[in-house]
Amino acid sequence: MDDLAKKAVKIGCAASRFLTPAEAQATMNYFKRRQDVNVVFDGGYEGAERVRAVFLNPDWGEYERKALFCVMQIHAAPQDSVGHRDILGAVMSLGVERAAIGDIIETPAALICLPELGVYIAENLTKAGNASISLTEMESELSAKAESYSTKTDTVASPRLDTIVSTAFGMSRGKAAEIIAAGRVNLNFEPCTKPSKEVGEGAVLSVRGLGRARLLEIGGMSKKGRTFIKVGVYR
Question: CB pairs under 8 A, 24+ apart, for 193-201?
Fold first, then answer.
């Protein structure tokens, strides 16, 4: 990442391969105080999970999505069911590294990849699972990803990690503290074993075996001095 940042300072723009959410968060933390280079995280559409770190010279660097992403629409017969795992497995069997592939989307069925691999994948990816498929490049950009979750509201003494986990997944605060200390919880895609860790608005937390949630809102205080929170639990 340091090499990419140096390259961007010299030529204006440089981009990584696709990063996992944890890798993107670590990169963001590492570069957040840098003044000589800006970092944008983009996965080809708004709300993408796997993104490229795009380094820009703040004085004159810029980029176009089409130069960094190839979006391939997947076509299959109506009676055939082609899932995420089928597509990913088929792409990997072509010798394509996972970091060269971004999100695989179900509606519309599409995959995002590095531009230099688009033609190769389209010509060679003809089967996924038991289904015959074909791929064509999409000209228009994908729409923003709509997040689907159920919301829960609660009042807590403070927006600590254990209280947010307790609210999101319907367990006691003591039980939440236990699973956090056991290493089962990630906060903003990084492991966190401190039940007392303060959680900021917008933070994402995931609990192994239970799912993922986001702290949507930290509100005002109740008459009893407790803080209102709203949590979204992903379906």
Answer: 194/161, 195/160, 195/161, 195/162, 196/160, 196/161, 196/162, 197/160, 197/161, 198/158, 198/159, 198/160, 198/161, 199/159, 199/160, 199/161, 199/164, 200/159
